[in-house]
Amino acid sequence: MSGLSLKLAVQTWLRTRGGVHPPECKDTAAMPIRTIPAPARLYLPLKQHIGAEAKPDVVPLQLVKKGQVLARGQGSVSAHVHAPCSGHIADIVEYPAPHPSGLPMPVLVIENDGRDDADEMPVAKHPHLLAPEDIAARVQAAGIVGLGGATFPAAVKMNLGQAKAVDMLIINGCECEPYLTCDDRLMQERAAGIADGARIMAQALNIVGAPDVIIAIENNKPEAIAAMREATAGWRHVDVVPVPTQYPMGAEKQLVRYLTGREVPAGKLLADVGVLVQNVGTAYAVQQALRTGMPLVSRIVTVAGGAVARPGNYEVPIGMRVSDVLAHCGLVCEPARVVMGGPMMGHALGHPDAPVVKGTSGILALTAGEVRAEAERPCIRCAACVDACPMGLLPVTMASLLKSDKLDEALGIGLSDCISCAACSYACPSNIPLVHYFNYGKGEVVAKREAKRKDEEIKRLIEEHRVRMAAIEREKAEAAAKRQAAMEKQKAEKAAA
Amino acid sequence: MPATTAPHTSGPRSVGFIMAMVMLALVPGTLLGIAQFGWPALNLFVLTIATALAAEAASLIVAGKPVRVALMDGSAVLTAWLLALSLPPWAPWWIGVVGAMFAIAIGKHLFGGLGQNVFNPAMLARTVLLISFPVEMTAWIAPQPMFSAHAPGFSEGLAITFGQLHLDAVSSASLLGHVKTTLGIDGHAPLPAIIAGSFHPLASFMGTTAGSLGETSALLFIAGGLFLIYLRIISWHIPAAMLATVGLLAWATHLANPLHFSPPLFHLLNGGLMLGAFFIATDPVTSPVSNNGKLVFGAGCGVLVFIIRQWGGYPEGVAFAVLLMNAATPLIDHYIRPRIFGRTLGGEPLPVAGKEGP
Amino acid sequence: MIATILTMAAMGLILGLFLGVSAYYLKVEAEPIVEELTEMLPGSNCGQCGFPGCAQAAAALASHEAPVTLCPPGGKGVVESLSARLGIDPPTGMVDVVPMLAFVNEATCIGCTRCAKVCPTDAIVGAPKQIHAVINRACNGCRLCVDVCPTECLQLVPEAVTLENWRWQRPVLASAA
What we know:
The complex is a heterotrimer. By secondary structure, chain A is an alpha/beta fold. Chain A is built from 15 helices and 17 strands. Chain A has helices spanning about 5-15, 130-140, 155-165, 180-190, 190-205, 220-230, 250-260, 280-290, 320-330, 370, 385-390, 395-405, 405-410, 425, 435-495; strands spanning about 35, 40-45, 55, 65, 70, 80, 85-95, 105-110, 170-175, 210-220, 240-245, 275-280, 300-305, 310-315, 335-340, 345-350, 360-365. Chain B has helices spanning about 15-35, 40-65, 65-70, 75-85, 95-110, 120-130, 135, 155-160, 175-185, 190-200, 200-205, 220-230, 235-255, 265-270, 275-280, 290-310, 320-335. Chain B starts with 14 loop residues before the first helix and ends in a 23-residue tail after the last helix. At the A-B interface, helix 7, strand 16, helix 11, helix 14 and helix 15 of A face helix 1 of B.
């Protein structure tokens, strides 16, 4: 609780619920960002965002330059994919996805020619004088998605915010997950760029006057707070606000409630209460896209964990395999688990060759001692999970209902409101895999919906089949009757002749 | 290979840690109690815990569950510890043995093992013993501090525990019992006089009164309870609600009729109320999970304790009150739930605060 | 004594009369449950439940002669809706079998079109003497095609798991790590 005054303490008590305090493990916060050069081959998934898969605009063997559009977003919620290096397209194949299942997804494979050639990019000299639609169009063209991990297309979000007339933009620099320090280093080293990006995004939401901008940073990052304050010194409508350090402070609904007191109603968006949240990395990417013309082709990734030889923050080209990144940083031992993201909500990779994608904030090679996977013990109803839940749910009861397959009852006490932050699983002294139950439950809800839809479809097809068969029968009968009538007529004619 | 789920780390607390901390919080009060009542008390305490461990091992084997892990988590020891604290300190050995076996085999494992019991096993066993063996279970004695002049030595202690020796000279009623029986005798002195004659707040606070091991030092048990609250092993809701309710009821009734109702401090410092509020009612398995539910639970316990003490047939009501509220816990959990973020208390989504687009 | 007996007897008579009259005038009409149950079943009349068709299965369900788990193509969803309508508890711990879809082995298909003709949802496409194929979206695993294929080139295979339909599995209690 460093540096919290009494007022802040009271506000914290009134405006936050639940939360846990895992050990921060943020030693990489002191290490400057280093760049990893693009390796021989890059694997770019066509879908690194929420929304429709992008459609390839190139064919195998085609030569490409760095920053060139390789695949175009389809539909209203989608994003483009750009080349992080120059070279040629080797193939478009199914490749293991950066997903716990390791199932394949379509991927563009680029053979790097090492020359880093890039075409002239359209640059905006005065981005804050551009019209909001223009800014959004450039952001969309740059393939920028939310870099906090959710990967929602940034331009779509900005347009939504404009449509709903948000009056506040929050730049999220909380980074509440342990180990991850990529946002921290970004704020310390490139504060001016982030501030510029924030201002450009505020300009894009400008309708009746610039929205207030709050840059929220957890108070365990004093250097970042100082850097951002310096970068935004003298700007009106921009505030750098330190927030209490706890997990999950950076969860957007919780963050909004803490900063503004506004509570997003269940099933609604942040824009419905007049707020938009973007990650600091997204703000920086927007600034880069508008000022230098370079689309989103690389990002800062924290490589950490007990098994890594040279942990730190690295600027990694999108599409570089996780195994290549770990080879670059060195491993001191075989990791017990390789996680993409943070330890609380990240994915344990199903396949070590999965590529780094736009949403990869961290690569953690964890030892068994860090993972602490212990045997599950019976639940003693200690309610540590209830105390930890930031949404005010009852994990103990929901898990017990899901264990007995009572999905509807679990939904009745709030299963669909769970944000899967895993604070409850972390707090549980009996090591019960609570969030696994809830993910399973949510998957069952979707599966049920799908099954119901298919049932209705099958019924409709059966009905159509029946109707078609009946029509065929009718036609046959009519044709037979006609033939019969024709035969009789012929007979009658013959008899008359 | 099944997919591994987040989180990929885990909190430092385990079930064993929680049990160990609760036992640590009980140590000061228990040590004082044993020091006050001497070797027989220690014998009973050790015997009860040993029986509980044996019963736990036997139950686990019969149930086909892994024995070693479950024995090491300390839950059986804690149950037996709390049971021993509620028994008369010089009770014969078979009281402790039967109680421990009942608490573990029937009160815990018959319901399904750890986390599945509806009723607090220690209180269940105590109640069964009280009803089955009322004489032995109400044979209170005045404190005989260890190593003092009239206290029994080690071998005498063994003799008392194993039933060969009875020292009637030191038997005494507990304060609650004394007040209740005296009030029942015709022509008794007015209540304030009885209390003034026998109730010394400091003695109850510090632990030099007759009673069970758990009825000794209110001070040490409060300290242990506050320690647990600080460590967030238990929450403050149940103890606060229970003590506040008893205190409030005692204060209001005493104000209304000092001749029939004892003063609040008398109720708070006597009997097993402090032990009950901080260690017994807060048993996580048998109490509600939500904070508001815990307040209701604690208040309910408080009301029942007061009613049983005042108008019931028994002088002490903590065990019965806790058992009755344990039965109400599923009901409390069903109806009292915290407000979900983004929803009203009724579960409907909050109304959107009038933000319209252009 | 006599007064007590007479009073009790009178009460019994009056209350019994009251019950009888209510049972007659307040009778709840039985609903046409069989039609409702038939609606819930897939309707492909595949026969995997052992009854000739879905209507007969519904009749058996209504008279409690068949278990609610009788329909494999229906899956967990049908079990739950049947249980809800019949007012009984669905069995716990049901593991949804992965949906089975028909699959044509192209090497042995002779293009006889028998399967296409018998499919109740028109899920098989194929012209005579051309290799047939199954449209997965329309197939509900009723097996009618498998039974008529002369070369046995049709089989039921589990639906392929892709990133779109992948779900978290039910957590299994792992014993000591």
